[in-house]
Structures are given as C-alpha cells and as structure tokens.
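Hello Y.,

Per our agreement to keep a running log of every chain we model this quarter, I'm adding this entry. I've kept the format consistent with earlier entries: sequence first, then predicted structure.
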Amino acid sequence: MPKQKSKRANGEGSFYQLADKTWVHQITLGRKPDGSLDRKTFKAKTRSACIERRDAYIAERQRQAFRTQEEQAHAEKQRAILEECGHPLESEILFSDAFLYWLKLFKAPPTKKATTYSGYLSTYDVHFNEFFGAMPLCEITRDVVQEYYNRKQLNGSRKDGKDGALSAKTIRNHHMILRDFFDYAVDKYKLPVNPALKTERPEVIRPQMRVLDPDEMAVFLHEVMRETQRTAILFALFMGLRVGELLATEVDDIDIKTQTITIRRNITRVKTEAIGGGNPQIRILNHDPEKKTHLIVQETPKTKNSIRSIPISDSMFELLAKHLFYLQQSHWPNPHNLLFPSTKGSYLDPKSFELRLKAISKRCEIKKVNPHALRHTFATRLVEEKVPLTTIQELMGHASVSTTQRYVTTMPHEMRKAVESVAAYCDPLKFLEVKRLNGAKDRMRFSDVRLPTWLQTEPAEA
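Predicted structure for the entry above:
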C-alpha cells in the first residue's frame, strides 16, 4: 500500500511552489470583520526560509499584542489616578524641575545663543522661581498665572528691591516664555490646558526713544573729542553700530579698498551657567567657574541680518586712518587685533563703555546718553535726510523694516518744519481777499463784530 501523507498540524499553514521554484507559505490568522479568512503569505527561495519569516512575523505580533496590553493597563491606571487625584501623575512635577529641564533642552546652546539662554535663566531666577518654583504643575491654573501678572504690575514687585512695577513690555515677555513652556507641558506632563492662555496683560505702550537733537549733538561731539576712545564713540553715533558689534570689531574687518567695515561678531556679558562647553560659536574671555557672569565673543551677531558691510564716509575714514596710525605707533598691547582695544589690550566691556558715555553726558548736562541713544540718533538723522527705510534697515542690521520704524523718532524741529511748510496757506490777510463762490451770500450773523487791529484792512472808526 502507498504511504499515507501525514496531515498538517493546526497553524502550520500550506506550502506550494511557483513555476520559478519560489516557495509560498500561507497561514490563517483568523477571520476579518466581514467573516472572510484573514491570511498572511510569505515567499522565499526555500521552504525553511518561509518558516523563519513566519515565525518572526508571529513573534512580532505577540510583542505588539503585549505592548498593547501594557499600554491599556497603563491607561487604565492613569484613569484610576485621575479619578482619585483629579490630575495625571506626571503633572505633579514641580515647576522648577520641569521649567529648567525645558530650558536646557530647547533654549540652551547650541539650539539658541548663549545670550538668549542667559536671559531666560535670569527671568527664572529673578521672577519665576519665587512665584512658581515650588508649585506642582497641576496646581498652576489660569487664575494663578493671572495673579502673577497682576502682582508684577504692582509697586514692590521687583526682587532687586527697586521701587516700581515691571513694565508692560517685560510682563509681555514673561507671558511669551510661560506660554511656550506650558505648550510643551501640555504634551509632556499631560496638563489639560495651557494656563497662560486667555489671560490679561497690560497694554504695551511704546516708549519715546532718546534721540539727541542737533544742538545736543554739537555739545556732545565737542566733549567726545577729549576722550581716549573718541573714535569708537563716533563710530557708534555715525555708523549706527550696536555696542557689542562695535567692541568686537577687529582691524581686519576694515576694507581700505572699498572703504567699508564688515560686522560679523559681537561681545556681550552672560550668566556663567548659560555658557556650557564645546560651543564653537562663542569665545569665553578669562573663564573662571567661580564668576557669576562672563564676557563672551559670539562669532555671529544678534541676527543673520546683522552680518553686513557698511560704507564708511570720507570724514569718518579720515578719523579711522588717524586712529589706526595711533594704534600702530602706541605701546598698547593688542593680541586680539581689535579695532578698539582697552589700554591693556583686552576687549572693552560694554558696561564700561556705557558708563563712559554716562560720564560724558553728565559733563555736557545732557540726560540719558547711552549706546542705544546714539543708535537711535543715527537712524533719526537718516530719516530726516529722506533716506529710504529699507536702506536704514540694512545699515542697522534689522531683521525687518518694522523694527527700523521703532527706532525712528520725529524731532520737534522736524515737526515745526512740517507745520511751517503749510503756513503760507494760513495767512489771515489772504482770507479777506479771497473771492466768494458763485451764488454765495453775505453772512450777517457776525457783521457787527470788529476784527482785531492786526487783521483790520481799514482804519477803525473813531
């Protein structure tokens, strides 16, 4: 009798070969929602390879089923916690821990500049930590955030002990930081909503920028010529440079042939903890871990638009040539090849430069002369000379024209000039000479009123 073929075991599936000798293996997984069989097919050059693929597929299905069970169990546990506590367990993390983790992950170098990270850390240390630091995220509601904004608008809300409240702009900046953080926390820590949304902040009123008028400029410039760093101050005023850009400029940034200066870096002071290590975009000056702050040189200026070449006027270039000659002939050390080094050959501190301007303005009896006032003055003089805003934007390295517009201040003498330009139309004597329109009748209502003597065209009656 012929040998009887053994029956396949359940789940073993079926095998057959195609014309090209390829093995095909099919197994039944169950039934689809419509009642038809749910099959899976495997192809390979050998029967054993088909079995290996089948076994790997089944093992992966089992792992997925196990993960699904775990996720369902976790979700069930979370629902139980939510019913018992009223909030997810993740949201019990303290604001201080969650916020600093977010800062380190998303706002620290190399993702952001050290100056940006330093600003965030200062805001946290001075303001957020005192109010929110010890609170679990689940307890920070919209009302809590609103209370923070309200408190910061009151006198005595400053941690530095100074009188007054925070400005509307500062509170708006705080709101932007909190809004971004809580957007992250909604996903990361399962917060139901972003508590910073739908809150009320004070209206930001743009302050009047300090601009030197022509008379003040004349007095200021006369006093500046007595300063050792007079060329640096004149560059700030007549080139519109940011103080960090000015003090980080090197001699090689001057192109004598094209008579231009290229801005490609800046110097600033940041918190030591914001510096980090291994960042090729910054140079730390005189690093000391014990110091709270450090001067750093950033190899990129404030924004990508800040990298620019600016023409130097003939008069400024003449002063610059004398300055370069003086640098070459002096005994000042200059290891960094700086255009404006200190007498010791190091970088000038922006704060020291600002204090120098303050001393000059005090001698001139001109208030509030700082690096930013010089920059605003530069932009305003250009507008008065009818220079297009787009040109001013490129000279100042602004990201947009709207930023440039905020730098422009209309001076009183310009407003008077504008008013005087239409004064010819407002000559009272011409009012009396104008002809009446056709059909117009005399108005008798004020016929008995005498004009002032300076407007009378006929002698007054005795």
